[in-house]
Amino acid sequence: MEKYIVGNWKMNLGDGRGLSLLKHLATLKIFPGVRVVVCPPALLLREAHHTLSPGLALGAQDVSAHPGGAFTGEISAAMLKAAGCQYVLVGHSERRLYHGEGEALLREKVRQVQSHGMTPIVCVGETLEEKKQGGALPFVTAQIRALALSGSYLLAYEPRWAIGTGLTAGLHDIQDIQSVLKEQFGAPVLYGGSVNAENAPDILALPAVDGVLVGGASLDIEAFSKIIESTPK
Ligand code: PEP
Q: Which pTM was predicted?
């Protein structure tokens, strides 16, 4: 099965550094069985599409739940598709936390993405509090069930306490949680949360890990290239 390496730039590198990173990425040798997806800020999508294709895939960091119309500031799935996107992050914890995105809205976003022929990368994950209270797995399973997913999608298990903190879930925990998710939902499951060049080889070697979603380390060409290279062939 394919392993996914997804880089989420968040609200970074919107200037010339982003373009030069894209040019570097376009020169990387990508082995068969490795799918690299780059999610730059929306304003770079078109440029990224021309620079990256055909070797690397393009993803958006967010999408509107609406097909079009009077929704100031939003970007529709049709627009993302036209810009060359094949994947869209949906329900990233920063969207849930800072923009109050809940289940009903996320269901619509997934629907928009899929109906435009793109693949949603649905992000889920527990806070430390939730982990202590009922355990990560019941929380994450409920989070996914609430979205009533069907069709083609990827899951990204990203413990909230591991995002941007330098902390990662233990290898056993990642394997245990993701193997249950894979079995229950029948979708590929990526891991995210402080993945870097040093920990990526061990994480990517886990059988229940179908890839990684990388934030901070995807901004650094050397670190991101090493993560891509460390993918088991
Ligand atoms: C993310 O943005 O999804 C993420 C996992 O960030 P980081 O790798 O920086 O923890």
A: 0.97
